[in-house]
Design goal:
- By secondary structure, this protein is an alpha/beta fold.
- The protein has two domains: 2-130, 3-Layer(aba) Sandwich (Rossmann fold), CATH 3.40.50; 142-300, 2-Layer Sandwich (Alpha-Beta Plaits).
- It is built from eleven helices and twelve strands.
- The chain has helices at 10-20, 33-43, 59-67, 86-94, 107-130, 142-159, 173-180, 182-199, 223-238, 266-282, 292-300; strands at 2-7, 26-31, 47-51, 77-81, 99-102, 163-170, 205-210, 213-219, 241-243, 248-250, 253-259, 288-290.
- A five-stranded parallel sheet has the order 2-1-3-4-5, sandwiched between helices. A five-stranded mixed sheet has the order 7-8-6-11-12, sandwiched between helices. Strands 9-10 form a two-stranded antiparallel sheet.
- Helix 8 packs across helix 9.
- Bound molecules: magnesium ion.
């Protein structure tokens, strides 16, 4: 794990670095408050050791800036200070630090406090990851999907490129549940998830959108290429035979595909894929349809290859 040490004194930095050197941590140093803030943005450390008394920007000010930044506010901060006064300790903890160490620090105490803060940070990271995973299928859940879609959308705005979105829905899922029971329905969802995930590239994000709906974020692809991925997923799901005791049951999925070329927001992109999915359902299910806007653009040659 990565620890950022911020202090205006090069000697203090060298000392803290030496004290923590044997802990197997990646140590990054920044001299002064402003440099510390910049290093936090650049390095995304797991923990910050922050000197309170610095001439350019105090540790308290750095801490407040970090806590106000949505990207950095979850990084734990331990204050280092020459003042052992209760007032400073209280202030440091009140503005969001997890701990406070008084200089000159005892090496064992510093290591123990750093390790305790890192343990908590590790648990916090795990919980954040778990919060984005659908427990039934192990795929990303709606939260993970929307976060990734927002990231890809932002990347597209900055750097251009291609992005597609696939929306899918298990055909006649209610009938499967009613006929074979919900436990079987769960197994069907797991099998569909596995078949879809196996077709995706590393850069794609397959997700459970909700209920019996699955979605895939497909970076670097226009609707025609994404439709080929959807078709591979459709065939993979169709090939799955689920054991229902006395017989085997086949499950099929319908897919709608849209790309970002004709969408002005992630919401529009999802809506276009949804519209294509409805057409796939109405045209008899177990098929792939491209959003009408994207299909027109592709056939008229308006879409850039
Ligand atoms: Mg200082």
């Amino acid at each position: 794990m990565k620890v950022l040490i911020v202090d205006d004194s090069p000697d203090a930095l060298a000392l803290a670095k030496a004290r923590l050197g044997k802990e197997g941590l990646e140590l990054v140093c920044a001299e002064g408050g402003k440099a510390g803030l910049a290093a936090a943005r650049r390095e995304r450390p797991d923990l910050i050791l922050l000197d309170v008394d610095m001439p350019d920007m105090s540790g308290f000010e750095v801490c407040q800036a970090l806590k106000a930044d949505i990207e950095l506010c979850m990084i734990p901060i331990i204050f280092l200070s020459g003042s052992g006064g209760a007032e400073d300790k209280v202030k440091g903890l009140n503005i969001g630090a997890v701990d406070y160490v008084t200089k000159p620090f005892d090496a064992f105490e510093l290591r123990a406090r750093v390790n305790a803060a890192l343990r908590t940070k590790h648990m916090q990271d795990l919980l954040i990851e778990y919060a984005k995973i659908d427990p039934l299928t192990g795929l990303a859940n709606r939260r993970g999907l929307m976060e990734r879609l927002a990231e890809e959308w932002a990347r597209l705005q900055r750097h251009g490129g291609k992005l597609s979105f696939i929306m899918s829905d298990v055909d006649h899922f209610k009938r499967i549940n009613d006929t074979h029971g919900h436990t079987f329905g769960d197994r069907a969802l797991q099998a569909v998830a596995g078949a879809i995930a196996a077709q995706c590239r590393q850069s794609d994000l397959p997700a459970r959108y909700g209920g019996e709906e699955f979605a895939i974020v497909v970076p670097g692809a226009q609707a025609d290429a994404a439709a080929m991925l959807a078709e591979r997923c459709r065939l993979a799901v169709e090939a799955v035979q689920l054991d229902a005791g006395s017989d085997t049951v086949a499950v099929t999925v319908s897919f709608g595909v849209a790309d970002a070329d004709n969408a002005d927001s992630p919401e529009t992109l999802i809506r276009h894929a949804d519209e294509a999915l409805y057409r796939a359902k109405n045209a008899g299910r177990n098929r792939v349809e491209i959003s009408s806007e994207d299909a027109n653009a592709l056939t008229s040659g308006k879409a850039t290859p």
